[in-house]
Design a protein that fits this description.
heterodimer; A: alpha/beta; abc type-2 transporter like fold; 2 domains; four-stranded mixed sheet; B: alpha/beta; Rossmann fold; Alpha-Beta Plaits; globular
C-alpha cells in the first residue's frame, strides 16, 4: 500500500511541477463554459434587419415598431428600393429584410388581404428559418389583435409551452455537453499522455523491472486525474449555476455519482489508448480523433443524433459521451430521478467494466 | 554458483521491410560476485541481452536464468531482486534527487535508511544537490543517481547498460571504483561498455560484435591470446604513413590508435627493420618505432578480422 501512495504522490508532483498543463487542466473547462455561454451561442438575438416600407401607413408603422422592439430583431436600416435591399445583403450587414407593398393597410381593410415579404439570408439556413418564424409570429400576433373585435367562425390557436427550458437558453443544452467534453479530454487524453510519457522517457523500463504490479502502476497514474476531474465537475456546475443561470433541478448527489462513473469510463479509455501508443504525440492525436471528435459529433450536444443517417445513429451508441449527455440532461435540466436514467447508467457501467478489463489485460508487461 | 546463465539466445527484430538479427546465438555465464563486461561497439547486441535478462524482452529462442530463475517463467521473481540501469537516463527529470531515490526505495518496499551504507559512497557525492531536479544534474551526477536508484534495494544482480557513456574521464574512474566496492558486497555485476579501456577493469569480459560473442576470457587471458608481436609507429605525417604501411603486403593489420599506428605483420620476424624500410622509402620524418604489449582493443581488432 505504501508503494501505491508514494506512486500517487509522485504522479501529483509531476502535475504540480508542470504549471502550464495544470493551468490548462483547471481553466479549460471554465474557458469552455464562457466561450459556449457567451461567444459560440446558437441563440438568435438582435439580428440586424432592414425594412422597405412602400406604404408608410398606420399598420406598417405599427408592425415595424413591434418587430424592431422585439429582442430578436434590431432595425438597422430603412431602405427605399429592392436594389438597395440586395446591396445591403451583399454587404452582409443584415440578416433579413421586411418588405411592405404599397397600400398595405388599404388592402388589408378593404380586400381583407394584404401581403408582407420576408427576405432572409439563407446562407445560414437554420438562422434564416428561425428569423422568418419569429417575424411571422409577431405578424400573426398583430393580426390576431386586429381580429379581436370581430368573431371569426373557425380559428385554431396554437399554444406553445417550452418545457424544462422556458427561456430557450442555449446553455441548457451545452452545459451537459461541455461536461462530457471536458471530462473526456482531461481523463482520457491526460492519462494516456501521462502513461505514454513514462514509455517515452524510458522510466517505464525501470518501473517494469520492479516489484510493482502493472495494474497498480495504471491505477496510481489515474488517481490524480480523477481528482482534477472532480475539480472540473465542481467548477463547471458552479459556473453554470452562478454565471449562466442554469439551475441543477435534479438530485446533485446523483449527478455527481453519474459524473464519477463517466470519469472512470474516460480514464479506462485513456489507459486503452496508452497501451498502443508509443509517443505522447500519437497518444494525443489518437485521443483527439477517437474521443474528442466523436464526443462532439455523436453525443447529441451540437447535432441532434435523430437527424443522422441510421448507420451513424447506430455508431453513436458506442460513444460513452452520448449516454452521459443524456443522463446529465435528464438529471440536471429535467430534474428526473434515477428511475429515468438507470438504463443509460447501466450501459455506461457495462462499457466501463469492459474497457477497464481489456485495458488492464492488454497492459504490456514487457517492452515491445 | 552461477548468477546468470545464457544459453544460445537468438533475437531478431522484425520491421516491415527487413529482419535484423540482433543476437545470433549467444551463450555465457556469470559467476556470483563477478564483474562481467560486455564489450562491443554500438549495435553489437549489448542492450538486447540486458533487456532479455531483465525480462523486458522475450528471446526468439534459447534460455536464460538469473539467480536460478527463468527469465520467461519466473519474470516476477527476477523483477523483485535485480537492479537495472538502462542505457538512457531513465529517472524522473522533474523530481529532485532525493525524491527520485525515495520513490525507487519505496517501490522496492525499502527505505533509503535501510540500505544507506550500500549507496553511501556514491550518494554522498550527489547529496549536496539533493534538492536539485534530476534533469538539471551533470552527466556524471545523473549516472551516480541512477546507480543509487538501481542499488537502493540491495539487488543480488546489477545490470548496468553503458553506465559510463557520455561521462567525463574522472567520473568514469570514480564509477568503476564504486563497482569494485559493490563487488565486495557480493553483488554480481553485468556491465556493458563501448570503451575498450574499461575492459581491463572487469573480472571477465565478452567481446561482442554484430550479435556474436567473439571471445570470453579474463582481460589478461584475452591479451595473452594475442600471439604476434605488435608495433607502435608514428611520424609527422600519420595519414600518409598509414597508407604506406597498408600498401606493404607483409603487413597484416594497421590501425590508428591515439598518436600511433598499431601494426602487426603476417609473418613476424625482422619487424623493426621492415618498418624502418617503409619509413625510409616514404621519406617520413620524426619517425618513432617501438615494440608494445597489445591492449584489449588490439585484440578486438584482430578478432574482428578473423
Amino acid at each position: 500500500m505504501k508503494q501505491f501512495f508514494i506512486f500517487v504522490k509522485k504522479e501529483c508532483l509531476h502535475i504540480l511541477r508542470d504549471p502550464r498543463t495544470l493551468f490548462i487542466l483547471i481553466f479549460m473547462p471554465i474557458a469552455q463554459i464562457v466561450l459556449y455561454g457567451f461567444a459560440l451561442t446558437t441563440e438568435v438575438k438582435n439580428s440586424r434587419i432592414a425594412i422597405f416600407d412602400q406604404s408608410m401607413d398606420e399598420a406598417t408603422i405599427q408592425l415595424t415598431a413591434e418587430i424592431s422592439s422585439s429582442k430578436y430583431f434590431n432595425l438597422v436600416k430603412v431602405v427605399h428600393s429592392y436594389e438597395e435591399i440586395e446591396a445591403t445583403f451583399k454587404k452582409g450587414t443584415i440578416r433579413m429584410a421586411i418588405v411592405f407593398p404599397r397600400n398595405f393597410r388599404f388592402d388589408l381593410l378593404h380586400s381583407n388581404h394584404a401581403q408582407i415579404q420576408l427576405i432572409a439570408d439563407a446562407s445560414d439556413p437554420n438562422t434564416a428559418n428561425t428569423l422568418a418564424n419569429y417575424a411571422s409570429s409577431i405578424i400573426n400576433d398583430y393580426q390576431e389583435a386586429l381580429n379581436n373585435n370581430t368573431e371569426l367562425p373557425y380559428t385554431i390557436k396554437t399554444q406553445f409551452r417550452m418545457l424544462y427550458n422556458p427561456e430557450l437558453k442555449g446553455a441548457y443544452n451545452f452545459v451537459p455537453g461541455v461536461m462530457a467534453l471536458v471530462l473526456m479530454l482531461v481523463c482520457a487524453m491526460m492519462t494516456s499522455i501521462a502513461i505514454v510519457k513514462e514509455k517515452e522517457m524510458g522510466t517505464m523500463e525501470v518501473l517494469l523491472v520492479s516489484p510493482l504490479k502493472p495494474f497498480m502502476i495504471i491505477i496510481a497514474k489515474t488517481i490524480p486525474y480523477l481528482f482534477v476531474s472532480f475539480f472540473n465537475i465542481a467548477s463547471i456546475l458552479l459556473m453554470s449555476v452562478y454565471v449562466l443561470d442554469v439551475p441543477i433541478t435534479g438530485n446533485l448527489g446523483l449527478l455527481l455519482l453519474e459524473s464519477i462513473l463517466f470519469t472512470i469510463t474516460s480514464l479506462s479509455l485513456g489507459i486503452l489508448i496508452s497501451n498502443s501508443a508509443q509517443t505522447q504525440q500519437v497518444a494525443m492525436f489518437t485521443s483527439m480523433m477517437s474521443l474528442f471528435l466523436p464526443t462532439l459529433l455523436f453525443s447529441g450536444f451540437l447535432f441532434p443524433v435523430e437527424n443522422m443517417p441510421l448507420p451513424l445513429q447506430l455508431l453513436s451508441n458506442i460513444v460513452p459521451a452520448k449516454w452521459y449527455y443524456i443522463i446529465v440532461k435528464s438529471v440536471m435540466i429535467k430534474g428526473l430521478g434515477f428511475r429515468y436514467v438507470w438504463k443509460e447508467t447501466l450501459i455506461l457501467m457495462g462499457m466501463t467494466i469492459v474497457l477497464l478489463t481489456v485495458s488492464i489485460r492488454n497492459f504490456k508487461i514487457r517492452l515491445a | 554458483m552461477q548468477s546468470v546463465i545464457v544459453e544460445n539466445i537468438i533475437k531478431n527484430y522484425r520491421t516491415k521491410k527487413e529482419t535484423v538479427e540482433a543476437l545470433k546465438g549467444i551463450s555465457f555465464s556469470v559467476d556470483k560476485g563477478e564483474i562481467f563486461g560486455l564489450i562491443g561497439p554500438d549495435g553489437a547486441g549489448k542492450t538486447s541481452i540486458f533487456r532479455i535478462l531483465t525480462t523486458l524482452l522475450l528471446a526468439d529462442s534459447g534460455a536464460a536464468t538469473v539467480d536460478g530463475f527463468d527469465v520467461v517463467k519466473d519474470y516476477k521473481k527476477i523483477r523483485n531482486r535485480v537492479g537495472y540501469m538502462p542505457g538512457r537516463f531513465s529517472l524522473y527529470q522533474d523530481l529532485s534527487v532525493q525524491e527520485n531515490l525515495e520513490f525507487f526505495a519505496a517501490i522496492f518496499n525499502t527505505t533509503i535508511r535501510e540500505n544507506y551504507n550500500l549507496i553511501k559512497d556514491i550518494y554522498q557525492q550527489i547529496e549536496p544537490f539533493k534538492t536539485r531536479k534530476a534533469g538539471q544534474l551533470s552527466g556524471g551526477m545523473k549516472q551516480k543517481l541512477a546507480l543509487s536508484c538501481a542499488l537502493i534495494h540491495k539487488p543480488s544482480v546489477l545490470f548496468l547498460d553503458e553506465p559510463t557513456t557520455g561521462v567525463d574521464a574522472v567520473s568514469r574512474k570514480e564509477f568503476w571504483e564504486m563497482l569494485h566496492r559493490l563487488k565486495m558486497e557480493g553483488i554480481t555485476i553485468l556491465v556493458s561498455t563501448p570503451y575498450m579501456d574499461e575492459a581491463s577493469l572487469c573480472d571477465r569480459v565478452a567481446l561482442m560484435q554484430k550479435g556474436v560473442i567473439m571471445t570470453i576470457n579474463t582481460p589478461a587471458g584475452i591479451i595473452s591470446g594475442f600471439k604476434k608481436p605488435i608495433w607502435a609507429m608514428r611520424s609527422s605525417e600519420m595519414y600518409r604513413l598509414m597508407n604506406a604501411v597498408k600498401e606493404d603486403e607483409t603487413v597484416e593489420s594497421c590501425f590508428p590508435f591515439g598518436q600511433y599506428q598499431h601494426i602487426v605483420f603476417k609473418n613476424p620476424g625482422n619487424d623493426e627493420q621492415r618498418l624502418q624500410e617503409i619509413a625510409r622509402k616514404g621519406n617520413f620524418t620524426q619517425v618513432e618505432i617501438q615494440s608494445i604489449r597489445p591492449n584489449i582493443e588490439d585484440c578486438f581488432m584482430a578478432l574482428m578480422q578473423q
